[in-house]
């Protein structure tokens, strides 16, 4: 069990008045995940739980492992209610209902009020867009499920909640279906546009490689080069890996050890779950790549991911 996982579990347990967290990690692994889980995945869940102050022991938050060894953090209805009600600017919520067709409303609109806004935030969800005909809760309680959808989407717009899902959305992700997550549309749109770009040719890559090699060996992060190229074309995984391979292998300062592969995997998985970019980590800790992370930097980096403060 990693020290980062123990630290995060202890931190959350103390925050929730549950002692120091001793012995609770194994309980969480058995109850908070739908399937087998690694320490890296468990750490990612604890970062998200700490970020939103949610209690995984009471199922306010849990997770599904995804196909890429990451996680899909799931927040239950009670968890969504908690983070909405605990937001310092929350000032009430109302629901408006459209015409009914059979046993359901055609649309439900959530109206959420913030103390620091002169106008309310509104989110209207249409039944035909959110209904799942293969899910029992939608068959037995269609209007309640529909109302939850409206509330969740409106809270994302109003408070910027990101990186968390309800169970319905998580199941769609596991099934490989595209979902609409409000602010997350920016991500999906960007990915769609990237997929439409032409693949960067190997001829151009080889032509620019000598110059890029010098830049990277002089300290430039490969991500800066990749990001610039990807504005007009799309680098292949092999080209990206080749650029990362050019980063000089760092030597740990005297008395320090370089972070292990397992520790780096935990950082990457945790950062993905919290939607923190590698460039933010590199800039904050003045490093060019994960190869420069020492063991002494692992916990500070995880703390930064849990509470990212970027200028």
Describe the structure.
The chain is mainly alpha-helical and 311 residues long. Among the domains are: 3-71, no CATH class; 81-178; 202-244, no CATH class. The chain has 15 helices and seven strands. Strands 3-6-7 form a three-stranded antiparallel sheet. Helix 1 packs parallel to helix 3 (39-52), helix 3 (39-52) runs parallel beside helix 13 (261-273) and helix 13 runs parallel beside helix 15 (295-306). The longest helix has 18 residues, at 142-159. The chain is globular, with a radius of gyration of 22 Å. 27% of the residues are buried. The model is unreliable at 178-195 (pLDDT under 50).
Mean pLDDT reading: 79
**Largest beta sheet: what is the strand line-up?**
3-6-7
Would you report the number of β strands?
7
Structural class: mainly alpha
Helix and strand run: HHHEEHEEEEEHHHHHHHHHHH
In helices, the fraction of residues equals: 40-55%
Spans of at least 5 consecutive residues with low confidence: 178-195
Rg calculated over all Cα atoms: 22 Å
* CA distance, first residue to last residue: 34 Å
- Largest β-sheet summary: 3 strands, antiparallel
Form type: globular
Task: Note the beta-strand portion.
Answer: 5-15%
Q: How many helical stretches?
A: 15
């Amino acid at each position: 069990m990693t020290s980062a996982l123990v630290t995060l579990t202890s931190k959350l347990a103390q925050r929730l008045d549950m002692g120091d967290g001793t012995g609770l990690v194994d309980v969480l692994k058995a109850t908070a995940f739908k399937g087998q889980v690694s320490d890296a995945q468990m750490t990612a869940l604890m970062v998200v739980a700490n970020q939103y102050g949610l209690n995984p022991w009471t199922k306010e938050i849990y997770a599904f492992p995804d196909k890429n060894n990451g996680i899909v953090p799931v927040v239950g209805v009670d968890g969504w209610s908690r983070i909405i009600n605990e937001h310092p600017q929350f000032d009430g919520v109302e629901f408006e209902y459209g015409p009914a067709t059979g046993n359901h409303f055609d649309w439900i609109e959530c109206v959420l009020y913030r103390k620091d806004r002169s106008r309310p935030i509104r989110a209207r969800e249409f039944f035909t867009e959110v209904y799942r005909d293969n899910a029992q809760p939608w068959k037995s309680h269609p209007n309640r499920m529909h109302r939850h959808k409206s509330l969740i989407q409106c809270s994302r717009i109003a408070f910027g909640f990101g990186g968390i899902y309800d169970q319905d959305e998580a199941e769609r992700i596991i099934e490989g279906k595209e979902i609409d997550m409000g602010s997350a549309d920016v991500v999906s749109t960007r990915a769609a546009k990237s997929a439409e770009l032409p693949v960067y040719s190997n001829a151009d890559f080889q032509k620019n490689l000598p110059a890029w090699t010098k830049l990277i060996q002089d300290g430039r992060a490969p991500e800066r080069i990749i990001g610039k190229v990807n504005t007009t074309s799309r680098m292949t995984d092999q080209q990206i890996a080749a650029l990362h391979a050019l980063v000089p292998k760092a030597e740990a300062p005297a008395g320090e050890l370089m972070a292990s592969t397992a520790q780096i995997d935990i950082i990457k998985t945790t950062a993905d779950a919290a939607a923190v970019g590698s460039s933010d980590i590199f800039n904050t800790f003045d490093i060019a790549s994960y190869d420069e992370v020492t063991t002494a930097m692992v916990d500070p980096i995880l703390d930064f991911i849990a509470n990212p403060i970027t200028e």
